[in-house]
Amino acid sequence: MARTPLLRGGVAVAIAAALVLAAPLALDQYAISILIRSFLFGAIAVTVDILWGYCGVLSFGQATYFGIGAYAFGLAVTQIGLSPGVALGALAAGCAVSALVAWLIAWLGFGPRVTPLYISVITLVEAVIFVQLIYSGGDFTGSSSGLSGFDTFDVSMEGWFRIAGLFLLAAVVLGAILVRSDAGRLLVAIRENEQRCRYCGIATARVKGVLLAGAAVIAALAGYAYAGYTDVIAPDLGNFQFGTELVIWVALGGRGTLYGPAAAAVLIDYASAYLGGTLPFIWQLIVGLVFIVVIVLMPQGIGPAVASLARRRPRAVAPPALATVADAEVGGDAAKPAIAVAGLSRHYGSLRVLDGIDFTARAGELVSLVGPNGAGKTTLIRCLSDGAERSGGSVAIEGTPIGRAAPEACVRLGLGRKFQAPNVFETLTVADALRIARARQERLSPWRRAQSIALPAAARLVLQATGLEDALATEVRHLSHGAKQALELAMVLAMQPRVLLLDEPTAGLTKGERTLIGGILTDLVRRHGLCILLVEHDLEFVREISSRIIVLHQGRILLDGSVAEVTGSELVRSIYTGTPEPAAA
């Protein structure tokens, strides 16, 4: 039974390949000529869908890489002449230049503190620069007229049809393998919640850069084939208008479906060839109106809407098996603080949220951070887990300063953070979320789904206590607030950190669940030497599990002492609980 979907997919691919091979026997020459181009455009649309529909990267630059691939062949043949060596060299050059340009764009567009809109703007500019470079190339690039009439491969039109059709089929199949794999789940996780991915230790900018470079290579291959078939290339192959059309085709076909964008690209380009000549302006108006109607009535595109009409009852998916790995022994040199904070400050202009924060915490300590609302507790957690958040001072993890390190780098130093509100992946299953949390320990495969997840005993205990172990196949969005809190805690524990930052980890849990979570935390401290910094409002819970307590008030440390000292302090009661201090005698 487990092989049934794979078998069905294999049969579907075989039928599609057979149709591509046989279709030239039934089509006229004009249809074959147009479909060759349409198939190549469809392959690029698939890459746009993977970038945008699955990873959330809206790029208008795939047209540019298509143009680079086309010009790599055209320039090589025009300047040197056609030979097997030149053809292979042009292919390698087109792919390499496209990948390098894409990596440069990724470096600019996926930097720290950059919004998702930035990559869209940069790729639009990229297309403009490409066209201007072609214009300024004079006779070398053909300027605005492009290049034409150069020697090309001795392949029949039917042969090119089969090459282009199988290329599109390969793009769809390889794309489907990727997006259904564990690595594909990571792409969705980045789209849904990039921040949580970074706090799982995943360098999301690098992942998106590799994806963009891979998509650029596929687009360059399509451009190379287009130039080899048509022996005519022009600057508009890589302009932003073509890049925008690709995005529109993906939106019409249905983001996140692969087959929808591929079909939309082929059908719209094929219809344009027939109707564009007789109804040039009306046809563009029709496409625009269809786009508006689809976006308003079917925001997910036509593909998902059509598929939902024929969809039968969803097939039950067996959840992966859970395995237990040994909890890392984190107790180290008792003389070395697990985390050391000196002179830490955070201010926004003249507003000082934190000022002069100094403390250390050692392995085997559970230090609770308490204080009234607005005391700066969550801000302090942010400053400890992200080097760019501090305005001043220093933070060191096990003797290593974090400097201005990004969250993923802090995680690699042994830090784990749970947020105040549940910070999870809403559209993933519980099992997928846990697998993403284990990505640093267990590499995510780009071609298959793992059948089991190895978790530390502490993470499994959280799952068992809250019932999540029986909900591994459930999408996170269907969980209660308390279950999401427990899932995030399990995800953080799955990373096996040595310093754990918890911002109200038991909010929304029942009393019994809170007691059990408290037991897990104290066990991690006592048996495994973990250092935990806990932000919590429940003083009773804090009293039961803490090694010591730090009280924050107005951005400063008011008191740092034992549980007895803090809970018995009249000053703390007056500041934290709102009880007035007794009048002096």
Automatic annotation (TrEMBL):
Residues annotated as transmembrane: 32-52, 64-82, 88-110, 117-135, 159-179, 199-226, 246-268, 280-302
Residue ranges occupied by any ABC transporter domain in the UniProt entry: 339-579
Cell membrane among keywords: yes
InterPro entries: AAA+_ATPase, ABC_AA/LPS_Transport, ABC_transp_permease, ABC_transporter-like_ATP-bd, LivM-like, P-loop_NTPase
Organism annotation: Acidisphaera rubrifaciens HS-AP3
Subcellular location(s) of the protein: Cell membrane
GO cellular component term, pick one: plasma membrane
Keyword field: ATP-binding, Cell membrane, Membrane, Nucleotide-binding, Transmembrane, Transmembrane helix, Transport
Gene Ontology molecular-function annotations: ATP binding; ATP hydrolysis activity; branched-chain amino acid transmembrane transporter activity
Protein name per Swiss-Prot or TrEMBL: ABC transporter branched chain amino-acid permease
Pfam families: ABC_tran (PF00005), BPD_transp_2 (PF02653)
Organism superkingdom: Bacteria
Membrane disposition: Multi-pass membrane protein
